[in-house]
């Protein structure tokens, strides 16, 4: 579960300060995708960055499950980010020289796993690539994959440490509508299967049926939120996705 309580975030802008988030509170529950929508510049990415423990807010708190992240020392926050938080960026941010499998193995080894466990790490990478519809693509480099496939690798990579929080920033922005829909359904399916609390920023609602809950941000404030319970259409629309 991700819990933001009364979060305010400002940025220095010359002599002035911009308030990007203004006393924002929200709860994202495990097994559900909470969509964050709102106009450009409203604070969506800032909200995601705070929830990912990438930016510390000026005030208010972030909890991941039972842990108050805002009370942690920087090193503890880094460890928590690695172990409990998976992040998927707008662009897939893959390393060009690595194969799909290696992208996941490198992420797994950031956790300091020993060589003795290499076989297990590789098996885990292949299991995740299979889960995102990329069985058979493990040896391809990013340049040998389509945009949708690259985004699938990025999603698999975010799941390597079996996170409880999954944060996804505009995953469809580089894709056509059909591929974008496949990625959104995949995120929804994995959210349920792996019981992640998923926060997903999107600028449009074309694929709204894959969201369980929708939070609207305007001028750094939440102006509307759902009731936190799954919408029937979101549950019904899930099917195992294949490669795109
Ligand atoms: N590093 C920064 N320094 C100063 N101001 C910033 C910084 N990052 C964001 N802002 C400002 O904070 C506000 C919120 O920005 P944010 O990127 O969170 O919005 P957004 O809703 O994600 O926008 P978009 O949909 O265009 O990506 C905006 O006014 C933006 O200009």
From TrEMBL:
This protein's UniProt keywords: ATP-binding, Nucleotide-binding, Transport
An example Gene Ontology CC term for this record: plasma membrane
Cross-referenced InterPro entries: AAA+_ATPase, ABC_transporter-like_ATP-bd, ABC_transporter-like_CS, ABC_transpr_LolD-like, MacB-like_ATP-bd, P-loop_NTPase
Signal peptide annotation: none
Protein origin, superkingdom: Bacteria
GO molecular function (one): transmembrane transporter activity
One Pfam family recorded for the sequence: ABC_tran
Keyword rRNA processing appears in the UniProt entry: no
UniProt name for this protein: ABC transporter ATP-binding protein
Organism annotation: Cnuibacter physcomitrellae
């Amino acid at each position: 579960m991700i819990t933001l309580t009364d979060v305010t975030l400002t940025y220095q802008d010359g002599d002035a300060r911009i308030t990007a988030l203004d006393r924002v509170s929200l709860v994202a529950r495990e097994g559900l995708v909470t969509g964050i929508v709102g106009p450009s510049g409203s604070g969506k990415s800032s909200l995601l960055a705070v929830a990912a423990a990438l930016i510390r807010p000026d005030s208010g708190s972030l909890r991941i499950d039972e842990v108050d992240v805002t009370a942690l020392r920087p090193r503890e926050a880094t460890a928590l980010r690695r172990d409990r938080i998976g992040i998927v960026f707008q662009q897939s941010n893959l390393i060009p020289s690595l194969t799909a499998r290696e992208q996941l193995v490198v992420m797994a080894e950031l956790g300091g796993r020993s060589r003795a466990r290499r076989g297990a790490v590789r098996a885990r990478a292949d299991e995740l690539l299979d889960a995102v519809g990329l069985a058979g693509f493990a040896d391809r480099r990013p340049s040998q994959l389509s945009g949708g496939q690259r985004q699938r690798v990025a999603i698999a990579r975010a799941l390597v440490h079996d996170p409880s929080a999954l944060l996804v920033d505009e995953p469809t922005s580089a894709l056509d509508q059909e591929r974008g829909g496949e990625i959104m359904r995949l995120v929804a399916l994995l959210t349920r299967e792996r019981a992640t609390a998923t926060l997903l920023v999107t600028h449009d609602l074309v694929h709204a049926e894959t969201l369980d809950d929708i939070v609207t941000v305007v001028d750094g404030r939440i102006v509307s939120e759902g009731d936190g319970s799954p919408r029937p259409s979101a549950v019904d629309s899930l099917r195992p996705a294949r490669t795109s």
